[in-house]
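fyi for ur records
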Amino acid sequence: MEFFAAVKARQSIRAFAGRPLEEEKLQTLLATANAAPSAGNMQAYEIFVVRNAGVKAQLARAAYGQEFIAEAPVVLVFLTNPDRSAVRYGRRGAELYCVQDATIACTFVHLGATSLGLGATWVGAFDETQAHRALGSPSGLRPVAMLPIGYPAEAPLPRPRRALADLVHEIP
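which gave:
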């Protein structure tokens, strides 16, 4: 799928078909995340790949009962690695750049999933402590986004967007 077509086609998918996600497609998406730009090319994030049903159920509970997370074949959890960014950028890297790095990588994967005919939705509403515990992730890493991925079992209508005139502010 051409890039602009993927951007236009992307929808938040919260219902997944029972079809497993092929390993080749998952590896393509992970390589896409790895190709995302990051501050100083520090890649100050980690990606946890979750296929385990029990862990997905824990993540769904951490996300305030968003059960579709547990129903996705794969959930990618993007965590910041503040220490990686702080080495070069100090406090700003640890507090901001690592978050930007993780979320840019998540966005690349989300668009890549659409391009491959998969569905996904960005999940940012969750209890970080519970998600951290569910993943068993090392201290110092901060979960900032979950991306459940699979074959869509729904086709939501496009949602309205703000008019560019309302969104864009040109400085003369």
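The chain has a mean pLDDT of 96. thats all i got for now
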